[in-house]
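hey m, so remember when u said the tokens were messed up on ur end? i reran from scratch. heres the input so u can diff it against urs
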Amino acid sequence: MLVLSSPSGAGKTTISRMLLEFDDNLTISISATTRPPRPGEVDGEDYFFITKEKFHEMVEKEEFLEHATVFGNSYGTPKKPVEEALTAGRDVLFDMDWQGTQQIYGRVHDDLVRVFILPPSKDELENRLRLRAQDSEDVIMNRMARASDEMGHYNEYDYIVVNVKIGDAVAEVQSILTAERLKKNRRIGLYAFVRALRGLTDEA
């Protein structure tokens, strides 16, 4: 399980999309939410849109890897799709904040790789937020204030990528993913493979 976190505007969503384009063995974790769909959003692709009653029921049944309520809307990561993907031999990508990452790490820390994306500078982060032309001045200032707090959690992650150029940042995350896949504890069937190479039988 690969988690990407960053303050808004630092590039984690763009990096996530590019990773999914380049890597056929990677699948994105889709969150469930109680908020209504925005124009253009598709149920089962952007989010699983569910009722508050259904969300509460899933919490009671411990069907989330992590969950939180933000501004009156609840969000959570369903366990089942993640477990099914991992069982099928696929890696799962999470685009989430540090709080969600902490919750998942508390449950499955041995299988989680945490990557934090940083902007090259405070000025560049603000510039990127403005270039998106999606938010008012007040919202941009609030995002910058929140970014300062979020970046303070960088030390809770395994890897840090500074997103100066998007192509370089994607390549660095791909390198992390490759290295983590090559760790011996993640190589399924490695024990039997090495025994066969050594010419050892089950009796040996």
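this time it looks ok to me. The mean pLDDT is 91. if urs says something different then somethings off w ur setup not the seq
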